[in-house]
Amino acid sequence: MVIVLMQISQKKIKRGIILSVTVSIMAIIVVMLLSDSELSLRTFSRIDSNYFLLAAVITISIWVLRTLKIQTLVRAMNGDIGFVDVFRINMASLFIAHVTPSSVGGFPFQIYLLHRKDLPLGKSTAISMLDGILNIFLFIILIPLFVFFWGAQINLGADIRRFIYLGVFLMVLLIVIVLFLIFHVEKARKFLNWLISRRFLRRFFKEKSLKKAAVFIERELEYFHEGFRILSRSRRNMLLVIIFNLLYWAFYFSLAPILLIGLGVNPPVFSVIIAQLLFNIIQPLIPTPGGSGGAELGFAYLFQFMIPGQLLGVFVVLWRFFMFYASLAVGGLFFVSTVKGTNFVKEL
Q: Domain ranges in the chain?
């Protein structure tokens, strides 16, 4: 996966930037038209400047907290990468995520950059996997809790609730299976060998491709198993990772309420958190670069019950500015300086 991404061309990056920004702008225009929002300086001036600055501080804090989480994982793996370098890696990875379909490029690019800092490939992979698994665990806990107690505040229908609970159940089941396979690598190897021998799969995939996939999955499970074993030895680092992760999401969930208060809206806090939780489940499924288009429309749909129509478009623009355009611009600068002189990007 890392090797494939290392062959990305400058043309593809430019195309990803243009596509993500263009689709994002088109979606914002649709939101403006459907909600009768007015896109003007006078409308944007309605946000209190103090809350705008606070939103900027929250955004930077989100970047810093994720950097601290990754740096703590690096330290737990006996790595030695300074804060500035990890921050650079974090922002550059965010940029790649924003310009690749469904944001899938950020994960392998982060592994690549960590590995370039003399961290073994297995440990680099384990760090990125642990980061993702921690987020999934947190969502599995929070989503049922918030939807059960406060889901009615954002007019979630019974069918949607059942769909959410089914999704959470499948996530829990998947995590249980993955964890079982991670801590029983030999059983995982036997299961994968059994799976690729099924005639059903061979009707759709070549035997060589199935074997390569099985080897890749087995290697990733071993990386994660080793990484989790190393992390569990250091209770201090594990505690710090959990704290930084909780703070990261606390700041993330606070951005939307701050923007709403700045626009003069008194937001139902728990409903705002639920909407953002649901959005983060949907976003990875959006096939456009950085989830553009679907992110704006999905966010507008989830918040339409909480915001006056004339402010909905402005709110979506402001939220997208801090959550997407800011990291696209800043991450782009770090990306260029990070990959210059490497073979990661052709013609750069």
A: 2-37+47-339
pTM of this structure: 0.82
Q: Give the DSSP per-residue string, 212-245.
A: HHHHHHHHHHHHHHHHHHHHHH-HHHHHHHHHHH
Question: In a structure prediction context, what are the per-residue pLDDT tens digits for the chain, which is 348 residues long?
Answer: 444 444 566 777 888 888 888 988 898 888 888 877 666 556 667 788 999 999 999 999 999 999 999 999 999 888 889 999 999 999 999 999 999 887 778 888 898 899 888 888 778 888 888 888 888 788 777 777 766 666 555 555 566 566 666 666 766 776 777 677 667 767 777 777 777 776 666 666 777 777 777 777 777 777 767 777 777 777 888 899 999 999 999 999 999 999 999 999 988 888 888 888 888 877 777 888 878 888 888 888 888 888 888 888 889 999 999 999 999 999 999 998 887 766 665 544
Distances (CA, A) of 204 to 133, 196, 207, 217: 30, 11, 10, 19
CA distance 183 to 226: 9
Give bridge partners of residue 289 from the DSSP assignment. Answer: 101
Which token pair is 238?
């594990």
